[in-house]
TrEMBL record:
Source organism superkingdom: Eukaryota
Region listing for Disordered, in residue ranges: 459-532
Biased composition regions of type Polar residues, renumbered to the chain: 509-521
InterPro entries, per the entry: MTMR14, MTMR14_PH-GRAM, Prot-tyrosine_phosphatase-like, Tyr_Pase_AS
Record's protein name: Myotubularin related protein 14
A GO molecular-function descriptor: phosphatidylinositol-3-phosphate phosphatase activity
Organism the protein comes from: Poecilia latipinna (sailfin molly)
Residues annotated as transmembrane: none
Low complexity biased stretches: 465-479
Length: 588
């Protein structure tokens, strides 16, 4: 028997999604937008969120708990940190292949010993299990100032508790006393960090920082693996993939939530981390990495996600660590995109419906790991919204991790859709691709060759063509290649500079308003017929639709300019009504 259509003829609805589930997500976002999570200050509502996350993990996995009941390990990590051991739905032979050899008691000990090594005590934490590999998250390495400053003092004399609302005291690294004790202390704390990484079989470390070291008032306050003087992390494969910090997403909001054409300003003084990727990961993705400084926010995020998916699909059994500075803005962005992308392929959380995977990634990846949504919203830094609205840009099969494998245990089948449903949706998906309205289109621009009768032409490549035909891979590549800050006219491949450029400023990231990309593409699809989306596309679109409905009924969007004809307000109201919610503050 064919399942009910996920899109009703009279408006936006989601098949199998009850009003209760919609309200749960809206309640979660509402709480998240007003509350900063702290492990030592948990309300009954937060306890219910924690319980729900464990229930959702339990649908697919056998797991153990890393105890953090009162924030003794990390004050802004979940109180019950989930360590996924294996998929509970696997047959015995697959279980034998992927079952974890990690002992939870040893892991707990390594976590407690290693927490000082990372900024704000945000240690390496496994969060996704994919084909027996752990995808982990953390903050960057702590610098001298944090280790011997206020945070280090609290660790040593307060039994591990830390005050994460305060900045560490800044101690200059050129002080003689600092230099004399640096090596021994770093050997100890970073040694524990390395043991934890190895115990989790992590080999690849992806660093999203645009700096080599975080600098405040001319002083280095954090470090990173790529600039460890003693090269303690030389046995790991280090990738420097600089990505703009949360401040940059104020520009995204100020441009009416339009990511197309928004290019980061790489010429700021504090930006000194080059793009550095092992050659074996650059040769098979058909991406011209030398042009990364000209990418807009859409293309940059797409290409980085492709890279991460390529890494975790490598032939070895090694895991991946993703981190930025504090690990609570850019890190959850990519962790969430990875989780949702793999889920859309049926590769992880195979038994969860769209509303359930959305709840899990918001609650666990963002809220319980300490993303400061109230603060970010007050500053207009809407990286959280960007994450889920961005799903429309990764629906293509080129982002699939299992292109040649059959999807498993899917709850969201292509047969759930009718041509009439999709054509009706397509007809609503109109407007300028650079307008705020287009950012809320349900059908992505990535749907190659799909169009509907009587509908406007649809951009095929998200507002800008993929320049693969004009790109060429380097004829030969060293084992590690990197791309540094360049003159805009100089696109040659270069090796890392011998000396890192020092910085005396940590001003907020800003877009280079002089370098923009066209918001429209000459590649438009003629209106001839309507084809069904892939299962991947249908699943991601359902998640995005549910998110927009819940977000519009709770937080709303803070438009910098009135939307033409109130179009976006009306569209958000449709989203909210479609899942049984009221969009009372679509634009505020």
């Amino acid at each position: 028997m064919m399942a009910a259509s996920p899109f009703a003829a009279g408006g936006f609805t989601v098949s199998g999604l009850s009003v209760r589930k919609s309200e749960q997500i809206a309640d979660l976002i509402d709480l998240f937008s007003k509350t900063q999570y702290r492990a030592k200050e948990v309300s009954p509502r937060v306890e219910a969120i924690e319980k729900r996350c464990l229930e959702l993990f339990d649908r697919d996995y056998k797991y153990s708990i890393i105890s953090n009941s009162s924030g003794e390990v990390c004050g802004h990590y979940p109180r019950q940190i989930v360590f996924l051991e294996y998929e509970s739905t696997e047959v015995d032979r697959d279980r034998d292949r992927f079952e974890s050899t990690v002992q939870i008691s040893k892991l707990q000990d390594l976590v407690s010993r290693s927490k000082m090594a990372r900024c704000r005590g945000r240690f390496v934490c496994p969060v996704i299990l994919y084909n027996g590999k752990h995808i982990c998250r953390s903050a960057t390495l702590a610098g001298w100032g944090e280790l011997y400053g206020r945070t280090g003092y609290n660790y040593i004399f307060s039994g591990g508790s830390d005050d994460t609302c305060t900045e560490p005291e800044e101690v200059p690294e050129d002080d003689p006393a600092v230099r004399n004790g640096e090596s021994q202390l770093f050997d100890k704390v970073r040694g524990h960090d390395i043991k934890l990484l190895r115990y989790l079989s992590v080999r690849y470390i992806c660093d999203l920082m645009v700096e080599n070291k975080k600098v405040k008032f001319g002083l280095n306050v954090t470090s990173s693996e790529k600039v460890d003087k003693a090269q303690r992390y030389a046995d790991f494969t280090l990738l420097s993939v600089p990505y703009p910090g949360c401040e940059f997403f104020k520009d995204y909001k100020d441009r009416d939530y339009t990511a197309e054409g928004l290019v980061f300003n790489w010429n700021q003084d504090f930006v000194d981390a080059p793009l550095t990727i092992p050659a074996r990961f650059t040769q098979n993705l058909n991406i011209d990495w030398t042009r990364y400084q000209s990418w807009d926010l859409v293309e940059q995020t797409q290409n980085y996600l492709k890279l991460l998916l390529h890494i975790i699909n490598s032939d070895d059994d090694s895991g991946l660590l993703v981190h930025c500075i504090s690990g609570w803005d850019r890190t959850p962005l990519f962790v969430s995109l990875l989780r949702l992308s793999l889920w859309a392929d049926g590769a992880v959380h195979a038994n969860l419906e769209p509303a359930e995977i959305l709840y899990l990634t918001i609650a666990y990846d963002w809220f319980l790991f300490g993303h400061m949504l109230p603060d970010r919203l007050s500053k207009g830094e809407e990286i959280f919204f960007f994450c889920f609205n961005f799903l429309k840009h990764i629906v293509s099969e080129k982002f699939s991790a299992v292109r040649k494998q059959r999807r498993k245990n899917s709850h969201f089948k292509e047969s759930d859709f009718t041509v009439e449903d999709l054509c009706q949706l397509r007809s609503r998906d109109r407007g300028s691709i650079t307008s705020l309205s287009s950012d809320f289109s349900l059908i992505t621009e990535e749907l190659a060759g799909a169009s509907c009768p009587n509908a406007d032409p649809v951009d095929l490549f998200s507002g800008h063509p993929q320049a693969s035909s004009g790109r060429r891979a380097p004829a030969s590549s060293p084992p590690m290649v990197s791309w540094c800050k360049q003159n805009p006219l100089d696109e040659t491949l270069s090796h890392p500079a011998n000396e890192a450029k020092s910085s005396s400023s940590s001003s907020s990231n800003q877009s280079d308003h002089g370098v923009t990309r066209s918001g429209s593409s000459p590649l438009a699809v003629p209106t001839r017929g309507c084809s069904l989306p892939s299962e991947r596309q249908a699943r991601l679109e359902a998640v995005r639709e549910i998110f927009l409905a819940a977000y519009s009924s709770t937080v709303g969007l803070r438009s910098s300019a009135p939307s033409p004809s109130g179009a976006i307000s009306g569209l958000l109201e449709q989203f909210a009504r479609g899942v049984g919610l009221r969009g009372s503050n679509a634009i505020v």
